[in-house]
Design goal:
Residues 1-23 form the signal peptide. The protein has 1 helix and 12 strands. The chain is α+β, with helices and mostly antiparallel strands. The protein has a single domain (31-139), classed as Immunoglobulins (Immunoglobulin-like). Strands 1, 2, 5, 8, 11 and 12 form a 6-stranded mixed sheet that branches. The chain has a 4-stranded antiparallel sheet with strand order 4-3-9-10, with no helix packed on it. A hairpin with a 2-residue loop joins strand 6 and strand 7.
């Protein structure tokens, strides 16, 4: 009987070590929450994709609502962006998508309405600090 109970105790101990190594700590680096408003010529810009790209690491993404509000998401379970400087890209372009499953999720292409200085040749930057950050982007169609 002793070898079986010793085996069970060892197995149980190893299980706790394994679980604590896998899920006991978070691998998520420090993040700051980021929200803001994107406007184009002083009007809310809806359905724009906002990307914060840090010098190193995973980018954070957001999408503007009908009022131009966005919230950045780092992972499916974590809102925010890495602390530090970021290049910011804002785009309204959408590629066409054909749903071959017949689910009716087809999407038409939408051209870019923003100047390249906000996306392909971005000049936008932002500094994310610990805690809550409000970072607005008042964009102009011509400058």
């Amino acid at each position: 009987m002793k070898p079986v109970s010793f085996f069970n105790a060892t197995l149980l101990s190893l299980s706790f070590v394994f679980l604590s190594a896998c899920g006991g700590g978070s691998d998520t680096p420090p993040l700051g929450t980021v929200t803001g408003v994107v406007t184009l010529d002083d009007k809310p810009l809806s359905d724009a994709e906002v990307t914060f790209q840090p010098e190193k690491g995973r980018p954070s993404l957001g999408k503007t609502d009908s009022e131009g509000n966005y919230t950045l998401v780092y992972t499916a379970s974590d809102n925010g962006a890495l602390i530090g400087p970021h290049r910011v890209l804002i785009t309204t372009a959408v590629e066409a998508f054909s749903d071959e499953s017949g689910g009716g999720n087809d999407r038409e292409a939408r051209p870019e309405i923003l100047p390249p200085k906000y996306n392909a040749q971005t000049t936008l930057t932002a500094q994310v600090k610990p805690g809550a950050n409000t970072i607005d982007f008042p964009l102009k169609s011509k400058e």
